[in-house]
Amino acid sequence: MRNSLILVFIMWFSLSCQSDAQKGETEDIKRIDRPEASILKGAYIPKDKDIFYTSGLVSEVLNPDAPEGDMSKYGNTYQQSIGTLEKIKETIEAEGYNMQDIFFLRVYLAPDETGEIDWDAWFQAYGEYFNNAENPSKVARSTIGVYKLARPELLVEVEAVAAK
Fold first, then answer.
1. pTM of this prediction exceeds 0.90
2. 3-state class of 148 per DSSP?
């Protein structure tokens, strides 16, 4: 009888220690909104979610005939932003994710030929992919101005993190 009670106690204890995911319950991804902003305060990703990280991605070459260092090779900040977001879209879709699954972006912007960073070009491109009628999802985001990127004609590099 005593052994039976011990066995029952062990079974009860092990069942009570299971996580919600083990019990078949899952938590939702929580986006902590800032209604006045186009980006989130943050995001909570439960441990039962699959997460996908991209490397820093850049736009495809627009003008392959342009010499090294020529700004027309990849285009201006807006063109590179669109090209980079398209590359992110292709990359995550190839792994079974979509743009709505992205919850974080880390954006690096470099100065153009005028020596200035075109922040507005990035913000415009971002608005075409996030926080709009087609994709109402906002993301947590860092947008960082840098001295330069890996090639002199690159103005935009973005890392994305998605979860589902």
1. no
2. coil
Closest CA to 140 of 106, 97, 93, 114: 106
Q: Which of 137, 162, 156, 164 has its CA nearest to residue 77?
A: 156
- Left if phi > 0, otherwise alpha if psi is -120 to 50, otherwise beta: which for 6? alpha
3-state secondary structure of 27: coil
Distance CA 90, CA 97 (A): 9
Segment among 22-31, 36-45, 88-97, 115-124 with least mean pLDDT = 22-31
Q: pLDDT digit string (tens) for 105-124? A: 999 999 999 999 999 999 99
What percent of the chain has pLDDT above 70? Answer: 85
The bridge status of strand 51-53 relative to strand 156-163 is antiparallel
Exposure b/e, 85-103, CB count within 10 A at least 16 = b:
bebbbebbeeeebebebbb
Neighbour-count burial of 51, counting CB atoms closer than 10 A to its CB (0-12 exposed, 13-18 middle, 19+ buried):
middle
Q: What is the separation of C-alpha 49 from the centre of its chain, rounded to a whole number of angstroms?
A: 15
The pLDDT, as a whole number, for residue 69 is: 83
